[in-house]
Amino acid sequence: MRTRFLSTLLAVGVVSALAAGCGGGEPPSNDAGGTGNDGLTSNVRLEDEAQPAGSPKSGGRLRIMIRLDANELDPHKMSETSAFVINEQIYESLVQSYRGEIKPAIAESWEQSADGLKVTFKLRDNAYFHSGRKVTAADVKYSIERIQNPETRAPRARSYEGIASVAAPDERTVEMTLSKPNAAILTLLSTAASSIVDKDVAEAGGLNGSVDGGSGPFKLTSRVAGQAIKLDKHDKYWEQGVPYLDGVDFTFNPDDNARAAAIRSGTVDFLWRPAPEFIDALKRDEKLKWYGGSGSLSLHLRLNTSKAPYDNVKVRQAIFLALDRQEILNVANSGFGTALNAGYLPPDRFGALKEPVYGKPDIEKAKALLAEAGFPNGFEAKLMVIATSAFQVRSAEVEQQQLAKIGIKVTIESVESTIADTKTKSADFDMYQSGFGLTYDPDERFTASFLKGGGLNYGGWTDPEYENLVVQARSEMDKDKRAALYQQAEKILAERGPVAMTFLNADFDVVQKDVMGYRGDPTPTYRFYKNIWLDR
Protein backbone atom coordinates (compact mmCIF):
# COMPACT_ATOMS: atom_id res chain seq x y z
CA MET A 1 0.00 0.00 0.00
CA ARG A 2 1.39 3.39 -0.95
CA THR A 3 2.08 5.50 2.14
CA ARG A 4 1.99 9.30 2.18
CA PHE A 5 0.82 10.29 5.64
CA LEU A 6 1.48 9.61 9.30
CA SER A 7 -1.70 11.29 10.46
CA THR A 8 -2.15 8.87 13.32
CA LEU A 9 1.34 9.54 14.62
CA LEU A 10 2.83 12.86 13.64
CA ALA A 11 -0.30 14.98 13.53
CA VAL A 12 -1.27 14.01 17.08
CA GLY A 13 -0.25 16.93 19.25
CA VAL A 14 0.88 18.96 16.27
CA VAL A 15 -2.46 20.52 15.40
CA SER A 16 -2.70 22.31 18.72
CA ALA A 17 0.89 23.48 18.38
CA LEU A 18 0.19 24.78 14.90
CA ALA A 19 -2.81 26.66 16.18
CA ALA A 20 -0.37 28.78 18.15
CA GLY A 21 2.61 28.97 15.88
CA CYS A 22 2.30 29.59 12.16
CA GLY A 23 1.43 33.18 11.55
CA GLY A 24 1.55 36.76 12.67
CA GLY A 25 -0.76 38.77 14.82
CA GLU A 26 -1.00 40.56 18.13
CA PRO A 27 -1.89 38.78 21.37
CA PRO A 28 -4.19 40.47 23.83
CA SER A 29 -2.34 42.37 26.52
CA ASN A 30 -2.34 41.26 30.13
CA ASP A 31 -1.07 42.51 33.45
CA ALA A 32 2.50 42.15 32.22
CA GLY A 33 1.95 44.38 29.23
CA GLY A 34 1.29 41.65 26.70
CA THR A 35 4.32 39.49 27.41
CA GLY A 36 2.22 36.45 28.16
CA ASN A 37 3.93 35.74 31.47
CA ASP A 38 1.19 33.38 32.52
CA GLY A 39 3.27 30.84 30.57
CA LEU A 40 0.64 30.24 27.90
CA THR A 41 0.90 30.85 24.17
CA SER A 42 -2.46 29.57 22.91
CA ASN A 43 -3.99 33.06 22.79
CA VAL A 44 -1.82 34.19 19.89
CA ARG A 45 -3.83 35.34 16.86
CA LEU A 46 -2.43 34.20 13.54
CA GLU A 47 -2.38 35.31 9.92
CA ASP A 48 -0.80 32.53 7.88
CA GLU A 49 0.88 33.30 4.56
CA ALA A 50 0.55 29.83 3.11
CA GLN A 51 -1.30 31.54 0.23
CA PRO A 52 0.10 35.08 0.09
CA ALA A 53 -1.58 37.75 -1.99
CA GLY A 54 -0.08 38.21 -5.42
CA SER A 55 2.11 35.97 -7.53
CA PRO A 56 5.53 35.01 -6.16
CA LYS A 57 8.44 36.84 -7.73
CA SER A 58 11.77 35.22 -8.49
CA GLY A 59 15.08 36.82 -7.62
CA GLY A 60 16.76 38.69 -4.82
CA ARG A 61 18.70 37.52 -1.80
CA LEU A 62 17.25 37.02 1.68
CA ARG A 63 19.40 38.33 4.53
CA ILE A 64 18.84 36.26 7.70
CA MET A 65 20.43 36.99 11.06
CA ILE A 66 20.83 34.26 13.70
CA ARG A 67 22.39 34.52 17.14
CA LEU A 68 25.14 31.90 16.78
CA ASP A 69 26.87 30.12 13.94
CA ALA A 70 26.93 26.31 13.86
CA ASN A 71 30.16 24.59 14.87
CA GLU A 72 29.23 21.46 12.89
CA LEU A 73 27.52 21.52 9.49
CA ASP A 74 27.82 17.80 8.74
CA PRO A 75 24.11 16.87 8.80
CA HIS A 76 24.84 13.46 10.28
CA LYS A 77 26.92 14.92 13.12
CA MET A 78 25.18 18.23 13.88
CA SER A 79 23.38 18.96 17.13
CA GLU A 80 22.93 22.76 17.21
CA THR A 81 19.63 24.31 16.16
CA SER A 82 21.40 26.82 13.91
CA ALA A 83 22.91 23.89 11.99
CA PHE A 84 19.43 22.50 11.35
CA VAL A 85 18.21 25.91 10.11
CA ILE A 86 21.09 26.17 7.64
CA ASN A 87 21.26 22.53 6.58
CA GLU A 88 17.56 22.25 5.82
CA GLN A 89 18.25 24.68 2.99
CA ILE A 90 21.23 22.66 1.74
CA TYR A 91 20.23 19.01 2.18
CA GLU A 92 17.28 16.81 1.28
CA SER A 93 16.07 13.60 2.89
CA LEU A 94 14.13 10.69 1.41
CA VAL A 95 10.87 12.29 2.50
CA GLN A 96 9.94 15.58 4.14
CA SER A 97 7.53 16.55 6.88
CA TYR A 98 5.33 19.62 6.85
CA ARG A 99 2.67 20.38 9.45
CA GLY A 100 2.11 16.76 10.32
CA GLU A 101 2.14 15.39 6.78
CA ILE A 102 4.84 13.20 5.26
CA LYS A 103 5.52 14.31 1.68
CA PRO A 104 7.82 13.15 -1.10
CA ALA A 105 11.33 14.56 -1.36
CA ILE A 106 14.17 12.58 -2.94
CA ALA A 107 11.77 9.63 -2.87
CA GLU A 108 8.76 10.33 -5.08
CA SER A 109 6.81 7.36 -3.63
CA TRP A 110 7.14 4.51 -1.16
CA GLU A 111 5.44 1.28 -0.13
CA GLN A 112 5.49 -0.53 3.19
CA SER A 113 4.95 -4.27 3.49
CA ALA A 114 1.95 -5.62 5.36
CA ASP A 115 4.12 -6.79 8.25
CA GLY A 116 5.79 -3.39 8.49
CA LEU A 117 9.28 -4.84 8.09
CA LYS A 118 10.15 -3.57 4.63
CA VAL A 119 9.87 -0.10 3.13
CA THR A 120 10.60 0.32 -0.57
CA PHE A 121 11.35 3.81 -1.87
CA LYS A 122 11.25 4.85 -5.51
CA LEU A 123 13.62 7.79 -6.10
CA ARG A 124 12.76 10.61 -8.45
CA ASP A 125 14.82 10.84 -11.61
CA ASN A 126 15.51 14.58 -11.41
CA ALA A 127 17.25 14.98 -8.03
CA TYR A 128 20.82 16.24 -8.38
CA PHE A 129 23.57 16.95 -5.87
CA HIS A 130 25.16 20.38 -5.95
CA SER A 131 28.18 18.72 -7.53
CA GLY A 132 25.99 18.04 -10.58
CA ARG A 133 25.83 14.28 -10.03
CA LYS A 134 22.40 12.60 -9.95
CA VAL A 135 21.23 11.27 -6.56
CA THR A 136 21.09 7.47 -6.67
CA ALA A 137 19.99 4.61 -4.45
CA ALA A 138 23.66 3.94 -3.70
CA ASP A 139 23.87 7.41 -2.11
CA VAL A 140 20.88 6.62 0.08
CA LYS A 141 22.44 3.35 1.19
CA TYR A 142 25.74 5.09 1.90
CA SER A 143 24.05 7.86 3.91
CA ILE A 144 22.02 5.60 6.20
CA GLU A 145 24.97 3.29 6.79
CA ARG A 146 27.17 6.32 7.50
CA ILE A 147 24.77 7.44 10.22
CA GLN A 148 24.76 3.94 11.72
CA ASN A 149 28.56 3.64 11.63
CA PRO A 150 29.97 4.27 15.15
CA GLU A 151 32.97 6.02 13.60
CA THR A 152 30.67 8.80 12.35
CA ARG A 153 29.58 9.51 15.93
CA ALA A 154 26.13 10.61 14.80
CA PRO A 155 24.27 11.93 17.87
CA ARG A 156 21.05 10.22 16.77
CA ALA A 157 22.55 6.92 15.65
CA ARG A 158 20.51 4.85 18.12
CA SER A 159 17.29 5.94 16.41
CA TYR A 160 18.48 4.04 13.32
CA GLU A 161 19.38 0.80 15.09
CA GLY A 162 16.15 -0.85 13.94
CA ILE A 163 17.18 -0.53 10.29
CA ALA A 164 18.65 -3.99 9.66
CA SER A 165 19.78 -3.36 6.08
CA VAL A 166 19.54 -0.99 3.13
CA ALA A 167 19.71 -2.38 -0.40
CA ALA A 168 19.97 -0.60 -3.75
CA PRO A 169 18.79 -3.11 -6.39
CA ASP A 170 18.88 -0.39 -9.06
CA GLU A 171 19.65 3.32 -9.28
CA ARG A 172 16.14 4.44 -8.37
CA THR A 173 15.04 1.77 -5.86
CA VAL A 174 15.89 1.59 -2.17
CA GLU A 175 14.79 -1.39 -0.07
CA MET A 176 14.98 -0.79 3.66
CA THR A 177 14.54 -3.82 5.93
CA LEU A 178 13.63 -3.31 9.59
CA SER A 179 14.36 -5.70 12.44
CA LYS A 180 10.88 -4.97 13.81
CA PRO A 181 8.01 -2.64 12.88
CA ASN A 182 8.88 1.01 13.53
CA ALA A 183 6.07 3.51 13.95
CA ALA A 184 8.52 6.40 13.66
CA ILE A 185 10.46 5.29 10.58
CA LEU A 186 9.07 7.80 8.06
CA THR A 187 9.27 10.75 10.44
CA LEU A 188 12.84 9.72 11.25
CA LEU A 189 13.73 9.62 7.55
CA SER A 190 12.18 13.06 7.00
CA THR A 191 14.57 14.88 9.34
CA ALA A 192 17.65 16.84 8.34
CA ALA A 193 19.68 14.39 10.45
CA SER A 194 18.67 11.77 7.85
CA SER A 195 19.97 13.84 4.94
CA ILE A 196 21.13 12.00 1.83
CA VAL A 197 24.69 13.11 1.17
CA ASP A 198 27.04 13.01 -1.78
CA LYS A 199 29.43 10.15 -1.04
CA ASP A 200 32.20 11.65 -3.18
CA VAL A 201 32.17 14.94 -1.25
CA ALA A 202 31.80 13.27 2.16
CA GLU A 203 34.79 11.02 1.61
CA ALA A 204 36.96 13.59 -0.15
CA GLY A 205 36.96 16.36 2.43
CA GLY A 206 34.09 15.87 4.83
CA LEU A 207 30.89 17.88 5.21
CA ASN A 208 31.97 20.58 7.66
CA GLY A 209 34.07 22.71 5.35
CA SER A 210 33.40 25.12 2.51
CA VAL A 211 31.82 22.55 0.18
CA ASP A 212 28.54 20.77 0.88
CA GLY A 213 27.29 17.36 -0.16
CA GLY A 214 23.64 18.23 -0.47
CA SER A 215 20.89 18.28 -3.09
CA GLY A 216 18.61 20.85 -1.48
CA PRO A 217 17.24 24.12 -2.90
CA PHE A 218 20.36 26.09 -1.98
CA LYS A 219 24.08 25.28 -2.14
CA LEU A 220 26.93 26.47 0.06
CA THR A 221 28.95 29.16 -1.71
CA SER A 222 31.09 30.66 1.05
CA ARG A 223 31.58 30.33 4.79
CA VAL A 224 33.39 32.53 7.28
CA ALA A 225 33.21 30.79 10.65
CA GLY A 226 31.26 32.76 13.22
CA GLN A 227 30.44 35.56 10.79
CA ALA A 228 28.61 34.60 7.62
CA ILE A 229 27.39 31.79 5.38
CA LYS A 230 26.32 32.43 1.80
CA LEU A 231 23.98 30.07 -0.04
CA ASP A 232 23.13 30.31 -3.74
CA LYS A 233 20.14 28.90 -5.59
CA HIS A 234 20.51 25.30 -6.80
CA ASP A 235 19.52 25.50 -10.46
CA LYS A 236 18.93 21.75 -10.74
CA TYR A 237 16.65 21.44 -7.72
CA TRP A 238 13.99 18.80 -8.35
CA GLU A 239 10.93 20.84 -7.32
CA GLN A 240 9.83 22.99 -10.23
CA GLY A 241 9.49 26.71 -9.60
CA VAL A 242 11.36 26.91 -6.29
CA PRO A 243 13.36 28.31 -4.72
CA TYR A 244 12.23 31.79 -5.68
CA LEU A 245 15.28 33.46 -4.14
CA ASP A 246 18.65 33.77 -5.86
CA GLY A 247 20.23 33.04 -2.52
CA VAL A 248 20.21 33.27 1.26
CA ASP A 249 22.84 35.14 3.28
CA PHE A 250 23.18 34.15 6.93
CA THR A 251 24.97 36.41 9.39
CA PHE A 252 25.52 35.78 13.09
CA ASN A 253 25.51 38.11 16.06
CA PRO A 254 25.16 37.12 19.74
CA ASP A 255 24.31 40.70 20.76
CA ASP A 256 20.55 40.85 21.35
CA ASN A 257 20.43 44.65 20.96
CA ALA A 258 22.38 44.58 17.71
CA ARG A 259 20.10 41.94 16.21
CA ALA A 260 16.96 43.90 17.06
CA ALA A 261 18.52 47.06 15.65
CA ALA A 262 19.45 45.24 12.43
CA ILE A 263 15.87 44.24 11.61
CA ARG A 264 14.47 47.65 12.56
CA SER A 265 17.00 49.48 10.40
CA GLY A 266 16.49 47.18 7.41
CA THR A 267 20.03 45.84 7.53
CA VAL A 268 18.55 42.34 7.52
CA ASP A 269 15.31 40.97 6.06
CA PHE A 270 14.65 38.14 8.51
CA LEU A 271 15.49 38.11 12.22
CA TRP A 272 15.43 34.54 13.47
CA ARG A 273 14.22 34.29 17.08
CA PRO A 274 14.75 37.77 18.58
CA ALA A 275 15.48 37.96 22.29
CA PRO A 276 12.25 37.84 24.31
CA GLU A 277 12.64 41.31 25.78
CA PHE A 278 12.43 42.82 22.27
CA ILE A 279 9.41 40.90 21.02
CA ASP A 280 6.68 43.32 22.10
CA ALA A 281 8.48 46.34 20.64
CA LEU A 282 9.15 44.55 17.35
CA LYS A 283 5.49 43.53 17.10
CA ARG A 284 4.50 47.19 17.36
CA ASP A 285 6.85 48.26 14.57
CA GLU A 286 4.62 48.92 11.55
CA LYS A 287 7.52 48.33 9.14
CA LEU A 288 7.76 44.70 10.24
CA LYS A 289 5.75 41.47 10.28
CA TRP A 290 6.05 38.77 12.91
CA TYR A 291 5.24 35.08 13.06
CA GLY A 292 5.18 32.65 15.93
CA GLY A 293 3.81 31.97 19.36
CA SER A 294 4.42 28.26 19.59
CA GLY A 295 7.60 26.84 21.06
CA SER A 296 10.12 24.31 19.82
CA LEU A 297 12.96 24.53 22.36
CA SER A 298 12.61 22.57 25.60
CA LEU A 299 14.92 24.07 28.24
CA HIS A 300 16.42 22.13 31.11
CA LEU A 301 19.10 21.95 33.78
CA ARG A 302 21.19 18.84 33.04
CA LEU A 303 22.91 17.01 35.90
CA ASN A 304 25.99 14.89 35.26
CA THR A 305 24.91 11.50 36.58
CA SER A 306 28.34 10.01 35.87
CA LYS A 307 29.76 11.76 38.95
CA ALA A 308 28.82 12.32 42.57
CA PRO A 309 26.61 13.64 43.98
CA TYR A 310 24.42 13.74 40.86
CA ASP A 311 24.50 9.95 40.56
CA ASN A 312 22.33 9.91 43.69
CA VAL A 313 18.67 10.02 42.69
CA LYS A 314 17.73 11.75 45.96
CA VAL A 315 20.06 14.63 45.15
CA ARG A 316 18.48 14.98 41.74
CA GLN A 317 14.99 14.84 43.20
CA ALA A 318 15.91 17.52 45.73
CA ILE A 319 17.00 19.78 42.87
CA PHE A 320 13.81 19.01 40.93
CA LEU A 321 11.69 19.98 43.94
CA ALA A 322 13.60 23.20 44.65
CA LEU A 323 13.04 24.80 41.25
CA ASP A 324 10.29 27.27 40.48
CA ARG A 325 9.87 26.75 36.75
CA GLN A 326 7.42 29.60 36.25
CA GLU A 327 9.85 32.05 37.84
CA ILE A 328 12.63 30.80 35.58
CA LEU A 329 10.39 31.33 32.54
CA ASN A 330 9.34 34.80 33.65
CA VAL A 331 12.86 36.05 34.32
CA ALA A 332 14.76 34.23 31.60
CA ASN A 333 12.29 34.53 28.73
CA SER A 334 10.04 37.44 29.68
CA GLY A 335 7.22 34.97 30.26
CA PHE A 336 7.07 33.88 26.62
CA GLY A 337 6.52 30.13 26.69
CA THR A 338 5.20 27.38 28.91
CA ALA A 339 6.60 26.19 32.23
CA LEU A 340 7.47 22.48 32.04
CA ASN A 341 6.29 20.95 35.28
CA ALA A 342 6.63 17.37 34.10
CA GLY A 343 8.78 15.80 31.38
CA TYR A 344 10.43 16.95 28.18
CA LEU A 345 7.23 17.25 26.16
CA PRO A 346 4.80 20.16 26.64
CA PRO A 347 1.26 19.05 27.54
CA ASP A 348 -0.19 19.52 24.03
CA ARG A 349 2.28 17.17 22.31
CA PHE A 350 1.78 13.53 21.45
CA GLY A 351 2.96 11.32 24.33
CA ALA A 352 3.10 14.11 26.90
CA LEU A 353 1.96 13.95 30.50
CA LYS A 354 -1.23 15.94 30.90
CA GLU A 355 -0.90 16.51 34.65
CA PRO A 356 2.07 18.25 36.32
CA VAL A 357 4.59 16.30 38.39
CA TYR A 358 5.85 19.47 40.09
CA GLY A 359 4.10 22.57 41.31
CA LYS A 360 5.32 25.18 43.75
CA PRO A 361 8.82 24.51 45.12
CA ASP A 362 8.88 22.21 48.15
CA ILE A 363 11.97 23.47 49.96
CA GLU A 364 11.51 21.42 53.12
CA LYS A 365 11.09 18.15 51.26
CA ALA A 366 14.09 19.00 49.08
CA LYS A 367 16.24 19.66 52.16
CA ALA A 368 15.09 16.38 53.69
CA LEU A 369 16.09 14.47 50.56
CA LEU A 370 19.53 16.11 50.58
CA ALA A 371 19.96 15.10 54.23
CA GLU A 372 18.97 11.52 53.41
CA ALA A 373 21.55 11.56 50.61
CA GLY A 374 24.25 12.62 53.07
CA PHE A 375 24.26 16.36 52.39
CA PRO A 376 22.38 17.99 55.31
CA ASN A 377 24.26 21.24 54.70
CA GLY A 378 24.12 21.08 50.93
CA PHE A 379 27.22 21.16 48.72
CA GLU A 380 29.07 23.28 46.18
CA ALA A 381 28.43 22.94 42.46
CA LYS A 382 29.42 24.49 39.15
CA LEU A 383 26.77 25.34 36.57
CA MET A 384 28.04 25.69 33.01
CA VAL A 385 26.22 27.94 30.55
CA ILE A 386 27.04 29.33 27.09
CA ALA A 387 28.10 32.93 27.68
CA THR A 388 26.57 34.32 24.50
CA SER A 389 23.10 32.93 25.21
CA ALA A 390 21.59 35.70 27.32
CA PHE A 391 18.31 33.97 28.16
CA GLN A 392 20.14 30.82 29.24
CA VAL A 393 22.51 32.88 31.38
CA ARG A 394 19.44 34.41 33.02
CA SER A 395 18.04 30.90 33.54
CA ALA A 396 21.27 29.85 35.25
CA GLU A 397 21.18 32.90 37.52
CA VAL A 398 17.63 32.14 38.67
CA GLU A 399 18.51 28.48 39.23
CA GLN A 400 21.53 29.59 41.26
CA GLN A 401 19.29 31.62 43.58
CA GLN A 402 16.66 28.90 43.88
CA LEU A 403 19.15 26.12 44.69
CA ALA A 404 20.79 28.30 47.33
CA LYS A 405 17.56 27.91 49.34
CA ILE A 406 18.36 24.22 49.91
CA GLY A 407 22.06 24.75 50.59
CA ILE A 408 23.47 24.09 47.11
CA LYS A 409 26.05 26.82 46.49
CA VAL A 410 26.26 27.24 42.74
CA THR A 411 29.08 28.94 40.86
CA ILE A 412 28.16 29.87 37.29
CA GLU A 413 30.74 29.06 34.62
CA SER A 414 30.15 31.05 31.43
CA VAL A 415 31.95 29.47 28.47
CA GLU A 416 32.02 29.68 24.69
CA SER A 417 29.84 27.25 22.77
CA THR A 418 32.82 25.26 21.47
CA ILE A 419 34.07 24.74 25.02
CA ALA A 420 30.61 23.72 26.21
CA ASP A 421 30.43 21.20 23.36
CA THR A 422 33.78 19.66 24.33
CA LYS A 423 33.04 19.56 28.05
CA THR A 424 29.58 18.02 27.71
CA LYS A 425 30.75 15.33 25.31
CA SER A 426 33.55 14.38 27.71
CA ALA A 427 31.23 14.58 30.76
CA ASP A 428 33.42 17.30 32.26
CA PHE A 429 30.73 19.27 34.07
CA ASP A 430 28.52 19.27 37.18
CA MET A 431 25.40 21.00 35.89
CA TYR A 432 24.71 22.38 32.43
CA GLN A 433 22.03 24.91 31.53
CA SER A 434 20.89 23.70 28.15
CA GLY A 435 17.97 22.88 25.93
CA PHE A 436 16.81 20.48 23.24
CA GLY A 437 14.61 21.24 20.28
CA LEU A 438 11.41 19.27 19.95
CA THR A 439 11.57 16.58 17.30
CA TYR A 440 8.93 15.47 14.79
CA ASP A 441 8.45 12.23 16.70
CA PRO A 442 9.30 11.71 20.41
CA ASP A 443 11.49 8.70 19.63
CA GLU A 444 14.25 10.74 18.01
CA ARG A 445 14.71 12.97 21.06
CA PHE A 446 14.22 10.31 23.72
CA THR A 447 16.64 7.92 22.02
CA ALA A 448 19.42 10.44 21.35
CA SER A 449 19.22 12.27 24.66
CA PHE A 450 18.24 9.76 27.31
CA LEU A 451 19.11 6.22 26.20
CA LYS A 452 22.42 4.46 26.82
CA GLY A 453 24.78 5.28 23.98
CA GLY A 454 22.69 8.23 22.78
CA GLY A 455 24.94 10.88 21.29
CA LEU A 456 23.29 13.68 23.28
CA ASN A 457 23.05 11.77 26.56
CA TYR A 458 25.68 13.91 28.27
CA GLY A 459 26.74 12.22 31.50
CA GLY A 460 25.48 8.83 30.34
CA TRP A 461 22.29 8.45 32.43
CA THR A 462 20.77 4.99 32.17
CA ASP A 463 17.49 3.57 33.41
CA PRO A 464 16.48 0.08 32.15
CA GLU A 465 12.76 0.67 32.74
CA TYR A 466 12.84 3.95 30.82
CA GLU A 467 14.83 2.42 27.97
CA ASN A 468 12.46 -0.52 27.68
CA LEU A 469 9.46 1.80 27.41
CA VAL A 470 11.04 3.95 24.69
CA VAL A 471 12.23 0.98 22.65
CA GLN A 472 8.84 -0.71 23.03
CA ALA A 473 7.02 2.47 21.95
CA ARG A 474 9.08 2.62 18.77
CA SER A 475 7.51 -0.63 17.58
CA GLU A 476 3.99 -0.02 18.89
CA MET A 477 1.76 0.72 15.92
CA ASP A 478 -1.37 1.56 17.95
CA LYS A 479 -1.11 5.32 18.56
CA ASP A 480 -3.00 5.30 21.86
CA LYS A 481 -0.87 2.50 23.28
CA ARG A 482 2.23 4.22 22.01
CA ALA A 483 1.23 7.49 23.67
CA ALA A 484 0.68 5.65 26.96
CA LEU A 485 4.17 4.17 26.80
CA TYR A 486 5.67 7.60 26.28
CA GLN A 487 3.69 8.98 29.20
CA GLN A 488 5.13 6.30 31.45
CA ALA A 489 8.60 7.12 30.18
CA GLU A 490 8.04 10.84 30.75
CA LYS A 491 7.01 10.17 34.36
CA ILE A 492 10.28 8.32 34.96
CA LEU A 493 12.26 11.09 33.29
CA ALA A 494 10.57 13.72 35.44
CA GLU A 495 10.99 11.84 38.72
CA ARG A 496 14.44 10.28 38.44
CA GLY A 497 16.01 11.40 35.17
CA PRO A 498 19.17 13.42 34.58
CA VAL A 499 17.46 16.73 33.79
CA ALA A 500 15.21 19.22 35.52
CA MET A 501 12.91 20.46 32.79
CA THR A 502 12.24 24.18 33.12
CA PHE A 503 10.27 25.70 30.24
CA LEU A 504 9.32 25.51 26.60
CA ASN A 505 10.17 28.78 24.88
CA ALA A 506 7.87 30.64 22.52
CA ASP A 507 9.43 31.17 19.11
CA PHE A 508 9.03 34.29 17.01
CA ASP A 509 10.47 35.31 13.65
CA VAL A 510 10.39 38.93 12.50
CA VAL A 511 10.64 39.93 8.83
CA GLN A 512 10.44 43.02 6.67
CA LYS A 513 7.03 43.80 5.14
CA ASP A 514 8.14 42.72 1.67
CA VAL A 515 9.23 39.24 2.76
CA MET A 516 6.46 36.97 1.52
CA GLY A 517 5.55 33.29 1.61
CA TYR A 518 6.46 32.54 5.23
CA ARG A 519 4.96 29.10 5.97
CA GLY A 520 6.21 28.21 9.44
CA ASP A 521 6.02 24.82 11.05
CA PRO A 522 6.73 24.42 14.78
CA THR A 523 7.21 20.66 14.65
CA PRO A 524 9.92 22.12 13.92
CA THR A 525 11.22 22.32 10.35
CA TYR A 526 12.81 25.16 8.38
CA ARG A 527 12.54 23.70 4.89
CA PHE A 528 9.79 26.16 3.99
CA TYR A 529 12.44 28.85 3.31
CA LYS A 530 12.46 27.69 -0.32
CA ASN A 531 8.93 29.15 -0.59
CA ILE A 532 9.93 32.62 0.61
CA TRP A 533 10.01 35.42 -1.96
CA LEU A 534 10.67 39.14 -1.96
CA ASP A 535 8.01 41.58 -3.16
CA ARG A 536 10.54 44.05 -4.58
**How many helix segments?**
15
Major beta sheet, strand line-up = 8-9-10-1-11-19-12
Total beta strand runs: 21
The stretches of 5 or more residues where confidence is low (pLDDT under 50) are 1-47
Beta percentage is: 15-25%
Query: What share of residues is helical?
Result: 25-40%
Give Rg in angstroms: 23 Å
Distance, first to last CA: 46 Å
Secondary structure category: alpha+beta
Q: What does the main sheet amount to?
A: 7 strands, mixed
Average predicted confidence as pLDDT: 89
Q: In one word, what is the shape?
A: globular
Chain oligomer state: single chain
How would you explain this protein's 3D organization?
The protein is globular. It is 28% helix and 22% strand. Helix 9 packs antiparallel against helix 11 and helix 13 packs antiparallel against helix 14. The protein has 536 residues and is an alpha+beta fold. The protein contains 15 helices and 21 strands. It starts with 13 loop residues before the first helix and ends with a strand. It has helices at 14-18, 81-90, 137-148, 185-190, 199-205, 256-265, 276-284, 313-322, 325-333, 363-372, 390-404, 417-425, 442-450, 464-474, 479-496, and strands at residues 61-66, 95-98, 101-104, 107-112, 118-123, 163-170, 173-178, 218-224, 228-233, 247-252, 270-272, 288-292, 297-303, 337-339, 379-386, 408-415, 431-437, 499-505, 508-512, 515-516, 533-534. The strands form five sheets. The chain has a seven-stranded mixed beta sheet, sandwiched between helices. Strands 14-18-13-17-15-16 form a six-stranded mixed beta sheet. Residues 1-19 form the signal peptide.
